[in-house]
Automatic annotation (TrEMBL):
Domain (Protein kinase) ranges: 53-314
A GO CC term attached to the entry: membrane
Assigned keywords, A-Z: ATP-binding, Glycoprotein, Kinase, Leucine-rich repeat, Membrane, Nucleotide-binding, Receptor, Repeat, Serine/threonine-protein kinase, Signal, Transferase, Transmembrane, Transmembrane helix
Protein name: Protein kinase domain-containing protein
Binding site for ATP: K82
Stretches assigned to coiled coil: none
């Protein structure tokens, strides 16, 4: 069928799973001993759920690829991430399956669970629980939801949930690991605004990922979150996560984007714009999001400012 072959006769979309790009073996037959919690999906079922990765099902994208909404016949609704893979050797395919096994073992109330995966025809697709309220970025900044004021208590609930998720991966996992890409688009929210840190473990995919989609839209979502030293050698990646979390707190406090080209040349990065105000309560109050300024106690604003300072060490 056209779906089995990765071709949709009704669409010219180039995001299909195309058998013509077959690596040394068509699919990863090895199953990691850790992989039991995640289900192996068939490419044909993923094609049907996303209508052959139709643009109308697209809900986001980043460095590693695009994310689609997938509707399955049994009523299951999943977020489907299609990763832009390079061709892998047999040993790299085995390494990939071990990474997927470790990702499937991550079980925490504030981490988005890997529900399933598909590795066929040189492509890797990851399936996650679907978040009804999208991402924190969507909720704060999309035109459809910006008018909905997110209360300061809801914002602190989100911050606390992300804190718990970071504590889990930084301190409780064995071995501990860094997330490596903390940003508002990677914090997902369910119907009750419970936060889920997504893409945990995905940083280990970096050497498997093609750089074909490093376009401005994919890059813009991460700008402003990375620690200044993040790309240097010897970077403490756990500390880099903490810096990014400090930026998340700034975003929640101010209601401003981590990077905004409409601000002045020296203030486009939120950390640069906000830093002069973090040491003084009155000044801190002035940069607090007007939608929560009247309801957030001054002591809470001051305490949050101190935590932000510790995270970004300005």
């Amino acid at each position: 069928s056209s779906l089995m072959n990765g071709h949709d006769t009704s669409s010219s979309n180039n995001d299909s799973i195309i058998p013509g790009r077959v690596p040394k073996r068509k699919s990863c037959a090895k199953t990691s001993k850790n992989l039991a919690p995640a289900k192996q999906f068939l490419a044909v079922d993923i094609m049907a759920a996303t209508r052959n990765f139709n643009e109308e099902c697209l809900i986001g994208e980043g460095f590693t690829g695009r994310v689609y909404r997938g509707d399955f016949p049994d009523g299951q609704l999943l977020a489907i991430k299609k990763i832009n893979m390079i061709d892998l050797s047999l040993s790299e395919q085995d390494e990939l399956m071990d990474i997927l096994g470790n990702m499937s073992r991550l079980k925490h109330p504030n981490i988005s669970s890997l529900v399933g995966y598909c590795v066929e025809f040189g492509h890797c697709v990851l399936l996650y629980e679907y978040a009804e309220n999208g991402s924190l970025e969507d909720l704060l900044f999309s035109a459809a939801t910006r008018s909905r004021a997110l209360s300061w208590k809801a914002r602190m609930k989100i911050a606390l949930g992300v804190t718990y998720a970071l504590e889990y991966i930084h301190l409780m996992c064995s071995p501990p690991f860094a997330h490596g890409n903390i940003k508002a688009t990677n914090i997902l929210l369910d119907a009750q605004l419970m936060p889920y840190l997504s893409h945990c473990g995905l940083a280990k995919f970096s050497h498997f990922v093609s750089a074909t989609r490093m376009d401005s839209e994919a890059l813009s979502g991460a700008k402003g979150y990375a620690a200044p030293e993040a790309n240097g050698s010897g970077t403490d990646i756990i500390k880099a996560d903490i810096y990014s979390f400090g930026v998340i707190l700034l975003v929640l406090l101010t209601g401003q984007k981590a990077f905004d080209s409409s601000r002045g040349p020296n203030d486009q990065f939120l950390v640069d714009w906000a830093s002069p105000h973090l040491h003084d309560l009155n000044s801190l109050g002035r940069i607090t999001d007007p939608r929560i300024r009247g309801s957030m106690p001054p002591k809470a604003i001051s305490a949050l400012g101190n935590i932000i300072l510790l995270c970004i060490k300005v």
